[in-house]
Amino acid sequence: MVQSGAGFGGIGMGAALGEDDLGEVTLFEKAERPGGVWRDNTYPGAACDVPSNLYSFTFAAGEWSRRFAPQVDILRYLEGVAEPLPIRLDTEVTDATWDDERAVWRLRTTTGEVEAEALVSACGQLSRPAVPDLPGLDRFTGPVFHSARWDHGVDLRGRRVAVVGSGASAIQFVPAIAPDAAQVTVFQRSAPYVIPKPDRPYGRRALSRRSRTWSRAARAFWTGFFEFGALGLTAIRPLAGSFTVAHRAMLRLQVRDTGLRARLAPDHPVGCKRVLLSSEWFRAVARPDVDVVTERIAEVTPDGIRTADGTHHPADVIVFGTGFHTQDYLAPMRVVGREGQELSERWRDGARAHLGVTVPGFPNLFVLYGPTTNVGSGSVVHMLECQVRYAREGVRRLAAGARTVEVRAEAASAYDVEMQDRLGDSVWTECTNWYRTESGRITNNWPGTMREYARRTAVFDDADYLFG
Is the whole-model pTM more than 0.85? Predict the structure, then answer.
């Protein structure tokens, strides 16, 4: 068996398969070390917005320095779990083609060609930074980089920094760089909902470091907290009002300027974008040397950014905090299934997969963090563990003698119809600008709770599959 990617999903799958005697398992990782997004995102202030006890595997306890683990803690944790796994680093899978006659996947990698009876894609949704095509960007004379590719060789002290975007990364690195920069100008398309982050450090003698019982209790508590949020986004909409109240209360307490408050007021229902946790964001943008600009960017000039109202904002450095190409699930890997069907063509109108894991016409392929598995409130690690357990059952069917395991088209279709119907009745149907594809589909979000997803993936129902 082969899998592509060694982030949370790939490492979790590798560890699960390592517990079974299912034949040779190889993990391919395109970078020089494992870790996925937590290897790539090293920007100042990088940390998780889910408590460490929930943002970790159930089978591997972590050593955390804070309730919300910083990037260095999470990367160290992942490397520790990955250490015994058979990972082939600096090797990217570029093409995967199904050989129907031999019932194998033929893979082309940057270091050679291999074959495998099963293929697991663990490429993730946050691996390809999105940079807007701004007019004049190539004329800018200073450093330009995305937060996920932070250039630590650029000294921001005493410099004017233009930050494009105000999402999950920006609300972490702006407070971290603002005290040193001469000026920070944040270009904001849409203000996020931000609620207080109940973070705190863990001392050497903290129960969180010494007690497994405490860790399990903390995980149960935070699961309940985020499930409450999920219900507010999907089933019991009035519950979402509590996030709006928390956002407005902190905004009023930390930002005195009424004009700035107005610019920081979201223009969409709570839940259209991930509710962000930070107790420092509003304080940072309220600084006299930080400005929030809501005018549309018209062009980049050699020494700054000009907005649609004609105002020129001088800048020495441009940093993009503009997120990722979240709908390109397996990109840039090219996957070809039965009868030469290319997966990117199958997904032209929006990706879809049974339980987010299996696709008709692509036998022995299992996708982790696939379509409709992203949680608006909760831990993606929980979702990944559910997918890992489910995919492992499929691999076990192969180890038991099946040549092929392929989800039935009718089962996948029924599941997709259910997902689109439920998503259409949730908050995400109001969020066209962020979640819908051009064809009108919502492909990223899971419309239920973490508990529901765990229940639905707990059993690998053979009736949903064709076995060759």
Answer: yes
Report which of 182, 144, 402, 189 is spatially closest to residue 295, judged by C-alpha positions. 189
Q: What is the CATH T-level fold of the domain 137-320, as seen in this structure?
A: FAD/NAD(P)-binding domain (3.50.50)
Whole-angstrom Cα distance, residue 387 to residue 408?
A: 18
* CA pair distance 23, 21, nearest whole angstrom: 6
Buried residues in 87-102 as b, exposed as e (16+ CB within 10 A): beeebbbeebebeeee
- DSSP assignment letter at 418: H
What span, in angstroms and rounded, lies between the C-alpha atoms of 213 and 81? 21
Answer yes or no: are the C-beta atoms of 299 and 307 closer than 8 Å: no
pLDDT digits (tens, 9 = 90+) for 216-238: 888 888 888 788 777 766 656 66
Helices 380-399 and 8-18 cross at an angle (nearest 10°) of: 40
Q: Confirm or reject CATH 3.50.50.60 for domain 2-128+325-467, answering yes or no.
A: yes
Distance (Å, rounded) from C-alpha 323 to C-alpha 167?
A: 7
Tell whether the model's pLDDT for residue 80 goes beyond 60: yes
* 104-109, strands of its sheet edge to edge: 112-116, 104-109, 93-99, 334-336
Q: What type of residue is 44?
A: P
Phi then psi dihedrals of residue 139, to 5 deg = -90, -10
What SS3 class is residue 430?
Answer: helix
Mean of the pLDDT values across residues 454-459?
A: 96
Residue pair 173/42 in contact by the 8 Å Cβ criterion: no
CB–CB of 209/215 below 8 Å?
no
Q: What is the CA radius of gyration of the chain?
A: 23
pLDDT tens digit sequence for 378-413: 899 999 999 999 999 999 999 999 999 999 999 999
